[in-house]
Fold:
Amino acid sequence: MNRPWCLPLLAALASCAGGDDSAASTEATACESGPVQDVIDTRLSLDLAQLTGEARISACPERGSGQVTLDVSGLDIRAVASGGHRIESHVEGGQLRVPVADDEQVDFTVDYAFAASDKTRFDGWMPDLGVSFTWPYYCGNLFPCEPGLVDGVHFELALTGVPAGQTAVYPDSIPGEAPDYMLGFAVGDYEKMDVGRSDGGVKISAWHFPGQAQAARDGTANMVDVFSFYERTYGPYSFGPVAGTVQVDWGIDSWGGMEHHPYVHVGKWDFGDEEAQNHEMGHAWYGDGVRIACWEDFVLSEGTNTYITARALEQVGGPEQWDYYVDDFLTPTCTGRDVNTIVLPDQTCNEIDFVHHDLWSLATYMKGACFYEEVGDVIGPAALDAIIGEFYQQNVGKAARMQDMIDLIVARSGEGDRAAIESAVTDWLRTEACPEDYAERCRARQERGGR
Ligand SMILES: [Zn+2]
Structure:
């Protein structure tokens, strides 16, 4: 997500053979979910004309819970079935409760209808804009889901009911574990442009509106090199053999983008902007690849990603970003013209109302990026790249906390650097007021330990 611009028991019955009411357990995988439920696969078929959906779900129940619970806040549930049998499920307070016989993996199908959303709400499928949007936790308006951050899902998607003459851009399958808000699609009068293939073999394309080819060329001018830099420096792309960027109409807010990998969405007015484009690509590494464990760790996604975007563009000879970051975004944050806040309030986990919290502001993007920039000044940007890469490879497909990243930075840094790193943590992440010399500190780039 690029800069916010301008955003619940049913008695479990005996096993299946007797035609009972619980979802059939399958031999597929032994569940290790333990204290939390784990949605493994969600295979969706959505009819955009009828506004109906079918979700084939594989999940591990929370141990001993006797049920799988999914958010269906915006859905009208028509039927739930498993093993060809209809199941008596319940919807309570927007939660679908599917009874299970034991703690093993279950497969069941949910047939439902969903409502069209619109640009005043931005929380589902918006036919008037031709785009879906469920960030941060509105997936229950489009499909039965577990909107919590910890659970990553493998998705499959099939769209029908696409208006004649329109192109639907969506992934038919996403192999890597993804946050629920990552699944997205766009429908419109698109022209497809081939961008190239990354060193890791990922085929990259762009879909733009008529007359927008130049913007697409400008925005993706260095994308193949930046993508290859991300792969080479942090690790392989986890969302399949293809990726791309899709120009979207978000109405008056058509700036920035949304990390709907493998096909990210970028607002029509920013489609020619390399920072906006490569920021969304970078989320495959931080935000989507490594998910945040708690909303309080939002800086692990946006701070890290804003930093690696500038770092990658710099390394491939693309446009320098730090003056732009400092002048256009950090300075308003630090001088009171824009929201400022402590960007790592991680004493709690998921206890903040994220959508209404100051954490969802430029402060988290910019102060987070400046934290990394300063650590790079202390230990050398190449050494920092290695740590960000190590952390990615340790945590891709999982959820992590920002303190885990800080601990790894400290662990991989020399004794002599600890004090400077600690003050960067305090000044940029754990203090509301910006450091007095915020611009110089974030703009300065001291070469140490090689580029
Ligand atoms: Zn972002």
Notes: Residues 45 and 158 are 5 Å apart (CA to CA). Confidence is low (pLDDT under 50) at residues 2-20.
